[in-house]
Design goal:
The complex is a heterodimer of chains A (about 180) and B (about 60).
Chain A lengths: L13 H18 L1 E5 H18 L4 H11 L2 H15 L7 E8 L6 E7 L4 H21 L1 H12 L2 H26 L1
Antiparallel strand pairs in A: 1-3, 2-3
Chain B lengths: L9 H7 L10 E3 L6 E3 L9 E2 L2 E2 L3 H4 L1
Antiparallel strand pairs in B: 1-2, 3-4
Classes of the chains: A mainly alpha (about 180), B alpha+beta (about 60).
Chain lengths: ~180, ~60
């Protein structure tokens, strides 16, 4: 039975799969984003995120460990020299998977997987998007504006009466409380 | 093993197929440009996802 087996074998032998993931991880480190299938991207995420975490500590041992996974010199240099400083203190979640549609030919789900810290278009447009959504929420909170209009349309005499009443009540309250305190 | 005794007529074949129909996938209109897209996918025409620009349009195409 398949219970609890989390790894997607991607229809490959173990050696083929490890070579595939090493190649994809190298490509992602060198190019910062790659287009692939959703299944491969999800496996790649599990493969590359521990490596990026490992790259945060720049030592000979961690470089050799990462090299044993990636098997090429260039991506290791790029990972330790370029990627790791930019990642900084991010506690995991270094990659982003965005689905793009289906592939012509085999209709497989396609996506873009990218390093989060290297997509500046997305992060800059994110701020503009939040302001937009806030504007729309203000539309739902239009009841406050309508009530304010009602107050304005209401005769000024009533509002002044209310103010007088509240002040009178406050005065009485203070007069009542002061003897009890004494 | 199953072995058909009689040929099925065109009527039987076609009657069986009356319930075979393609299901339309649920689409959403892009809030930016109005292009119909699948849910949870980047817009194919303007490259936005959840009000956020993901890439230049030429890169997503």
């Amino acid at each position: 039975m398949r219970h609890g087996k989390k790894n997607n074998h991607l229809s490959r032998t173990a050696s083929h799969r490890s070579a595939l993931l090493a190649n994809m991880a190298s490509s992602l480190i060198l190019h910062k984003k790659i287009a692939t299938t959703v299944a491969k991207a999800k496996e790649l995420r599990k493969y590359i995120e521990p490596l990026i975490t490992k790259a945060k500590t720049d030592s000979t041992h961690s470089r050799r460990t990462v090299f044993s996974y990636l098997k090429y010199k260039d991506p290791v240099i790029a990972l330790f020299g370029e990627v790791a400083p930019k990642v900084g203190d991010r506690p995991g979640g270094y990659t982003r998977i965005l689905k793009t549609g289906v592939r012509l030919g085999d209709n497989s789900d396609m996506c873009i997987i990218e390093l989060v810290d290297f997509n500046e278009i997305y992060t800059t447009s994110k701020k503009a998007a939040t302001t937009k959504t806030r504007r729309s929420r203000k539309g739902t909170g239009a009841t406050t504006t309508t009530t304010a209009k009602k107050v304005e349309t209401a005769p000024a005499a009533t509002t002044t009466d209310e103010v007088v009443d509240t002040t009178a009540e406050e005065v009485t309250d203070t007069t009542e409380t002061t003897p009890t305190e004494e | 093993m199953p072995h058909p005794k009689r040929r099925h007529s065109k009527q039987r074949r076609d009657k069986r197929r009356t319930h075979d129909n393609a299901i339309m996938p649920t689409l959403m209109l892009c809030p930016n440009c109005g292009t119909p897209n699948l849910y949870h996918r980047i817009c194919s025409s303007c490259g936005q996802y959840r009000h956020k620009q993901v890439y230049e349009v030429a890169q997503t195409a």
